[in-house]
Amino acid sequence: MPITATPTSIPDVLVIEPTVFGDDRGWFFESFNEKDFSAAVGKSVSFVQDNHSSSKKGVLRGLHYQMEQTQGKLVRVCHGAVFDIAVDLRRSSLTFGKWMGVELSAENKKQLWVPPGFAHGFLVLSETAEFLYKTTDYWHAGSEKCIVWNDETLNIQWPNLGMRPVLNPKDAAGLTWNDAPKF
User: Fold this and answer.
1) In whole angstroms, how far apart are CA 156 and each of 10, 84, 132, 148?
2) Which helix (H) or strand (E) holds 172?
3) R_g of the chain computed on alpha carbons
4) Full DSSP string of 42-71
5) What is the mean pLDDT of the chain?
6) Is 2 in a helix, a strand, or coil?
7) Residue 64 annotated to the active site
8) Rounded to whole angstroms, how far apart are CA atoms 23 and 45?
9) Which of 169, 162, 174 is nearest to 57 (CA)?
């Protein structure tokens, strides 16, 4: 079952849309197919870990990345909706320092491919959201970094929910763009 892969404003970051088969009983889609995904991104990608989180409205997670054991992430939402962000940290890239954002939801069934070399985060738009992601390497606590969500240089245009984002202490104390290590 083929997928559609659409480049975003950062061409290496792709919106992945599965073929959804539906009728009056409901719907079905393949959330991942290695052959189709590798063809869409133009190379073989191996995933080693699946993660699943649940968050309440207004929770903002990120902007996370690892300097060692860098992770590519294939992310999607199976319940609710989020505004998902990727920030290019690759100095050699034409889009270095740029960000892109897209709404991912259980309803639109879109996924986002965020290759290694990017910071990643999301803001929960719905009352609750369940967020799933596959990673190309294991989590490595010692090399994890975080850029603060409201960095003035990046100027990410987060949706206005009429409330201040809910952050954990680590994310609230994230680094500025200028202080964050880059690739």
Assistant:
1) 14, 11, 23, 10
2) helix 169-172
3) 16
4) TS-----EEEEEEEETTBEEEEEEESSS--
5) 96
6) coil
7) yes
8) 32
9) 162
pLDDT at residue 141 tops 80: yes
What is the distance in angstroms between the CA of the first residue and the CA of the last residue of the chain?
35
Structure confidence at residue 2 (pLDDT): 81
At position 168, the amino acid (one-letter code) is: N
- The residue annotated as part of the active site, out of 65, 133, 138, 140, is 133
pTM: 0.95
Q: What tokens were used for 53?
A: 């989180």
Alpha carbon distance 156, 41 (integer Å): 26
Which tokens hold the place of 76?
A: 């999607």
Q: How many CA atoms lie within 13 A of 102 on its CB side?
A: 26
- Rounded to an integer, the average pLDDT of 8-22 is 95
Backbone φ, ψ for residue 38 (5° rounding):
-60, -40
Q: And the tokens for 127?
A: 């009352």
Which residue, chain included where needed, has tokens 């061409």?
11
